[in-house]
C-alpha cells in the first residue's frame, strides 16, 4: 500500500491545512479521546516532505495541533508572541480558534489521501506565523532567573498594556540585554532596550501619527518607560518600534538580542507565582 501523493495534493493537503470531524471522520477517530473536539479544527504541522512522502515506512504519521473555538483573540496570544497559545480568526469562516501546545499529537496518515481538508484556511502570513510559533519553542532563549525575579512585579501591568490597542498591533517583542545569561547580584543592574515589531502597515500608521499632537504609539512607549522606572535592578535605556521588514540578520544573530515571549515573564524559576501565565 503506497501513499497517493497526487490525489492528496489535489485534495489540498499541505502544511498548515486543517481538518475536522466532518471533513475527515476517519482521521478524527484516530485522535486520542482527550484531544477530540467536534467543534474544533486540527491544523497539520507536518512538513510537506513528511506529510506527502510516498512511503508509510519512512513517514508513518502526521503531526497535528487542536484549535478550540473561543470568543475572541487575546492580544498576547496573537502572532506567536505566546509560545504556548496561538489565537487566530479564520477569515473564511469568521470563527476564532485557540491553539494550545498541550493539544499536539500524532496520528497515522494512511487515510490522508482519502480524507478532505475543512474550510479553515490560513493566509500565507498566518502560515508563516504558525511555523515561526512552532520553531520558536525550540530556539527561544531563557532569561536569567534574577532578571525574571526583578521583572515579576510588572507582569500584570505589562499584560494590561500589551492587551490594549497599540499592544495588539505589536507582532513580537525583542529585548536587547547586556547580560543575557548571568544572575547579577543586587548591587548590579541589567541594562536593556525593548523593541516592538510592527507590520509594515502598522509601522506606516505609526509614522503618520508622529506629526499629530498625541501619538498612540508614543504614549505606549512612555507607559512602558514609566513602568520600568519603578523596578529596581533593571535600567531601561531605550524603547522603540521597528518594522518587521527592517529586522536585520545581524540583530537576529546577536546573542544579546532576544525574542521576549510574553506568556511567561519568568522562564527560569519553577514557582507557582512566577509561572502564572499571561493570557
Order of helices and strands: HEHEHEEEHHHHEEHHEHE
| Biggest beta sheet summary | 5 strands, antiparallel
Low-confidence stretches: 263-279
* Principal-axis shape: elongated
Percent of residues in β-strands: 15-25%
| Helical fraction | 25-40%
Mean pLDDT comes to: 87
**Global structural class:** alpha+beta
Compute the number of helices: 10
Distance between the termini: 46 Å
Number of strands: 9
Number of domains: 2
Oligomer: single chain
What's the gyration radius in Å? 21 Å
Going across the biggest sheet, name each strand in turn: 1-2-3-5-4
Brief digest:
With 279 residues, this protein is of the alpha+beta class. The protein is 29% helix and 22% strand. It folds into 2 domains: 5-139, no CATH class; 145-259, Beta Polymerase, domain 2 (2-Layer Sandwich), CATH 3.30.460.
SSE arrangement:
Layout: H1 5-11, E1 18-19, H2 25-30, E2 41-44, H3 48-51, E3 61-70, E4 85-89, E5 96-108, H4 124-139, H5 145-151, H6 155-162, H7 165-169, E6 172-177, E7 190-198, H8 200-209, H9 216-229, E8 234-243, H10 249-252, E9 257-259
Parallel strand pairs: 7-8
Antiparallel strand pairs: 1-2, 2-3, 3-5, 4-5, 6-7, 6-9
Structure description:
The chain has 279 residues and is of the alpha+beta class. It has two domains: 5-139, no CATH class; 145-259, Beta Polymerase, domain 2. 29% of the residues lie in helices and 22% in strands. The protein has helices at residues 5-11, 25-30, 48-51, 124-139, 145-151, 155-162, 165-169, 200-209, 216-229, 249-252; strands at 18-19, 41-44, 61-70, 85-89, 96-108, 172-177, 190-198, 234-243, 257-259. A hairpin with a 6-residue loop joins strand 4 (85-89) and strand 5. Residues 263-279 have low confidence and may be disordered.
Amino acid at each position: 500500500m503506497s501513499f497517493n501523493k497526487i490525489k492528496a495534493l489535489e485534495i489540498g493537503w499541505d502544511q498548515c491545512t486543517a481538518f475536522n470531524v466532518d471533513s475527515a471522520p476517519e482521521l478524527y477517530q484516530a485522535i486520542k479521546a482527550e484531544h477530540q473536539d467536534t467543534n474544533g479544527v486540527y491544523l497539520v504541522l507536518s512538513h510537506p516532505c513528511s506529510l506527502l512522502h510516498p512511503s508509510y515506512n519512512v513517514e508513518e504519521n502526521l503531526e497535528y495541533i487542536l484549535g478550540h473555538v473561543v470568543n475572541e483573540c487575546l492580544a498576547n496570544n496573537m502572532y506567536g508572541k505566546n509560545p504556548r497559545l496561538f489565537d487566530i480568526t479564520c477569515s473564511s469562516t469568521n470563527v476564532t480558534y485557540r491553539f494550545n501546545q498541550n493539544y499536539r499529537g500524532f496520528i497515522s496518515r494512511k487515510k490522508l489521501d482519502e480524507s478532505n481538508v475543512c474550510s479553515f484556511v490560513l493566509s500565507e502570513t498566518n502560515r508563516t506565523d504558525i511555523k515561526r510559533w512552532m520553531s520558536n519553542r525550540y530556539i527561544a532563549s531563557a532569561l536569567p532567573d534574577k532578571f525574571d525575579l526583578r521583572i515579576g512585579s510588572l507582569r500584570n501591568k505589562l499584560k494590561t498594556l500589551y492587551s490594549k490597542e497599540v499592544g495588539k498591533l505589536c507582532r513580537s517583542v525583542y529585548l536587547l540585554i547586556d547580560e543575557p545569561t548571568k544572575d547579577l547580584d543586587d548591587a548590579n543592574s541589567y541594562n536593556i532596550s525593548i523593541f516592538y515589531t510592527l507590520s509594515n502597515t502598522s509601522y506606516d500608521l505609526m509614522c503618520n501619527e508622529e506629526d499629530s499632537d498625541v501619538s498612540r504609539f508614543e504614549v505606549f512607549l512612555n507607559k512602558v518607560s514609566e513602568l520600568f522606572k519603578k523596578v529596581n535592578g533593571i535600567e531601561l535605556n531605550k524603547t522603540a518600534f521597528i518594522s518587521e521588514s527592517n529586522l536585520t540578520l545581524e540583530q537576529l544573530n546577536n546573542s544579546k538580542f532576544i525574542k521576549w515571549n510574553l506568556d511567561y515573564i519568568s522562564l527560569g524559576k519553577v514557582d507557582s507565582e512566577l509561572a502564572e501565565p499571561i493570557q
